[in-house]
Design goal:
Layout (H helix, E strand, L loop, with lengths): L2 H19 L1 E9 L5 E8 L3 E6 L4 E8 L5 E3 L7 H6 L8 E2 L5 E2 L3 E4 L2 E4 L8 E2 L12 E5 L2 E8 L10 E10 L2 E10 L3 E2 L3 E2 L17 E4 L1 E5 L12 E2 L11 E2 L9 H6 L3 E6 L7 E7 L5 E7 L3 E5 L23 E5 L14 E2 L5 E11 L2
Antiparallel strand pairs: 1-2, 2-3, 3-4, 4-5, 6-16, 7-10, 8-9, 11-12, 12-13, 13-14, 14-27, 15-26, 17-20, 17-22, 18-19, 18-21, 21-24, 22-23, 23-27, 24-25
Bound molecules: beta-D-glucopyranose.
C-alpha cells in the first residue's frame, strides 16, 4: 500500500470516529409570553448528552454515567420551559451577565462617570440586574460539536454603558463540555460572564451535595461583608473551613462557627485561583463517593464562586416533582471577582472598543470504578 493511500485511509477513519462521537440536534422547547420560540440544542458524544437552550443560553441538562454505567442528569433544571419562566430566582444553568455576581450598591465609576445599575439584591446589584442575560433570548447557530449563542446587549441595557456583543459557544468533546466566551463593546464598559449551573453528581433528586468531596485549587478567597460584597482583602484559606486545597467533604465544616459561612448560610464565596488570569488551569475537582462520578473544572478565569445552593428553599420542583431544597446543588461559577469595578486591585473587568475578551471553562465528567 502506498503511503498516500495509508494517509487517505487514516484520514477517513478519523472522520468516521469524529462523526460517530458527536451529534447536534435542535428542537423547540417553548415560547416566551410575547411568542418568541425558544430553541433547545442537544449535544451528544460517546460519554455525555448536554442540552442547552436559547433562553438565557442555559444548560438544561447534562446526562452522564455513574460507576455502574447508570446514566443520570447531573444539573438542576426543569423538564418544561414553563418551569424556567416561573423561576426568577435560581439562575439554573444560565449565562449570567452583564456582570455575574454582585456590584456594591449597583454603582461604579468608569472614565470619571458614575453608573447606576439595578439594586435587586439587598441594596446591591446581582447577576446583571432585574433583567440580566439569564432572562434574555439568545440567537443560536450550530457549530462543529456544539452551538454558539449570541446576545447583543444595547448601550444602556440595565444601566450599563456600551453595546456589548457576547458569543458563548458550548461544545462537547468526548466527556468534556467546553464553554468559550468572547465579548466586544462599542464603548468602555465592564463585563463578567459565567455559567450558573447547579451540579449534583449523584443525579438530580439524589439528595444534597454535602457528602460530595471537593478540591479547589486556591490558596486565598475574597472575604465579604454581610451583603456578600468583597472587603477587598485576599485572605488565606489556611486553617479555615475555606481550605479545599486537599479534597474535603463539602458538608464537613459547612456549619462551623466561621464568619464567612455564617454570613452566607454556607459556602457562597469567590476563591482566588492559583495561576495567571487568562491561562488555562484546574479550578476544582468534585467527587461523589456514592455514584463514583467525578467532575473536573478548568478555566482561564482568575476566580471561582463556589456556592452550595444556600438559598434553594424547596419552592421550586424539578422533573418528577423533585424538591429543590437547600444544598441540593452546587455551583462552580468561574469568573472575575465580585464587585471588581469598585476594587482597582482586583483583575480588571473593563472592556474597551477594539478589544475582545476571551475566556474558557471546561467541565469534564468521569466515574471511578
Ligand atoms: C450568588 C448567590 C446567589 C445565587 C443566586 C450565586 O452566584 O453568589 O449569592 O444567591 O447566585 O442563585
Amino acid at each position: 500500500m502506498t503511503t498516500r493511500w495509508l494517509g487517505v485511509m487514516l484520514l477517513s477513519m478519523t472522520i468516521a470516529t469524529v462523526a460517530a462521537h458527536g451529534s447536534v440536534t435542535k428542537a423547540e422547547f417553548g415560547k416566551t409570553s410575547d411568542g418568541t420560540a425558544i430553541e433547545i440544542y442537544t449535544l451528544k458524544s460517546d460519554a455525555v448528552e448536554a442540552r442547552v437552550m436559547t433562553y438565557g443560553a442555559r444548560v438544561v441538562s447534562i446526562k452522564t454515567a455513574d460507576k455502574n454505567g447508570n446514566v443520570a442528569d447531573v444539573v438542576l433544571g426543569y423538564d418544561s420551559f414553563a418551569g424556567y419562566l416561573a423561576d426568577g430566582k435560581t439562575y439554573f444553568g444560565a449565562i449570567v451577565g452583564r456582570y455575574g455576581n454582585r456590584i456594591a450598591k449597583g454603582e461604579f465609576v468608569l472614565d470619571g462617570k458614575t453608573y447606576q445599575v439595578p439594586k435587586n439584591n439587598d441594596g446591591n446589584s446581582l447577576h446583571g440586574g432585574t433583567v440580566g442575560f439569564d432572562k434574555l433570548v439568545w440567537k443560536a447557530r450550530e457549530v462543529a460539536e456544539g452551538v454558539e449563542m449570541t446576545l447583543v446587549s444595547k448601550d444602556g441595557d440595565q444601566g450599563y454603558p456600551g453595546t456589548l456583543t457576547a458569543h458563548v459557544r458550548y461544545t462537547l468533546h468526548h466527556n468534556a463540555l467546553r464553554i468559550d466566551y468572547s465579548m466586544t463593546t462599542d464603548k468602555d464598559t465592564v463585563v463578567n460572564l459565567t455559567n450558573h449551573s447547579y451540579f449534583n453528581l449523584g443525579g438530580v433528586g439524589s439528595g444534597t451535595i454535602l457528602g460530595e468531596e471537593m478540591m479547589l485549587a486556591a490558596d486565598k478567597y475574597t472575604p465579604t461583608d454581610k451583603g456578600l460584597i468583597p472587603t477587598g482583602e485576599l485572605a488565606s484559606v489556611e486553617g479555615t473551613p475555606m481550605d479545599f486545597r486537599k479534597a474535603t467533604v463539602i458538608g464537613k465544616r459547612i456549619n462551623d462557627n466561621f464568619e464567612a459561612l455564617k454570613l452566607a448560610g454556607g459556602y457562597d464565596h469567590n476563591w482566588v485561583l492559583r495561576g495567571a488570569n487568562g491561562e488555562i488551569k484546574t479550578a476544582a475537582r468534585v467527587h461523589d463517593p456514592v455514584s463514583g462520578r467525578v467532575m473536573t473544572v478548568t478555566t482561564t478565569e482568575p476566580g471561582v464562586q463556589f456556592y452550595t445552593g444556600n438559598f434553594l428553599d424547596g419552592t421550586f420542583h424539578g422533573p418528577g416533582g423533585v424538591v429543590y431544597a437547600k444544598n441540593t446543588g452546587l455551583c462552580l461559577e468561574t469568573q472575575h471577582y465580585p464587585d471588581s469595578p469598585n476594587h482597582p486591585s482586583f483583575p480588571t473587568t473593563e472592556l474597551k472598543p477594539g478589544q475582545t475578551r476571551h475566556s474558557m471553562t471546561t467541565f469534564t465528567f468521569s466515574a471511578d470504578k
